[in-house]
Design goal:
Helices cover 0% and strands 38% of the residues. By secondary structure, the chain is mainly β.
Length: 152
């Protein structure tokens, strides 16, 4: 059985991903690798809910024990529509999934995956199938669902 995969980004930029610091929600429950959303009215962030309407980025660490600035903020890796991410798929991945839009789901194991069964609340488009058997795909998040879209 393959090891658990964490989200991977390809920016094409030498400087790496765009990270912005936000205060974690005091009641937050996020862990490293969670998709998160920022409550702009308050300025804090927490893990996205099911079928998230908005996605800010990836949590770069857990709420407890993660890196915290002197101001009590934590970095969030902002997701851009022009950036490719590697994720695994939940459900039956087939070759014809390439180029199609799907939702995202947090599995019972706590890992965010492409939800092949969800073609209604779409959040990503599969741009490459990297390993059909292991269900590894390259995706781009849809600009309309990104809270701080840095791409097109």
């Amino acid at each position: 059985m393959p090891a658990e995969l964490s989200p991977v980004y390809y920016t094409g930029l030498e400087t790496g991903p765009l990270c912005l610091d936000f205060v974690p929600d005091p009641a937050g429950t996020f862990v490293k690798g969670d998709l998160v959303v920022v409550d702009v009215a308050v300025g804090d962030f927490d893990v996205c809910g099911a079928d998230p309407a908005l996605i800010a980025g990836w949590a770069t660490g857990p709420k407890t024990g993660g890196f915290v600035t002197a101001e009590g903020k934590m970095p969030v890796e902002i997701i851009g529509a022009d950036v490719a991410y590697v994720m695994t798929a939940a459900g039956t991945l087939v070759a014809t999934s390439l180029g199609k839009k799907f939702g995202v789901v947090k599995t019972a194991a706590g890992k965010w995956e492409v939800d092949i069964a969800d073609t209604t609340a779409t959040r990503v488009v599969i741009t490459s199938i990297l390993d059909l058997a292991a269900k590894r795909v390259e995706v781009h998040f849809l600009a309309a669902t990104l809270q701080f879209n840095t791409g097109s």
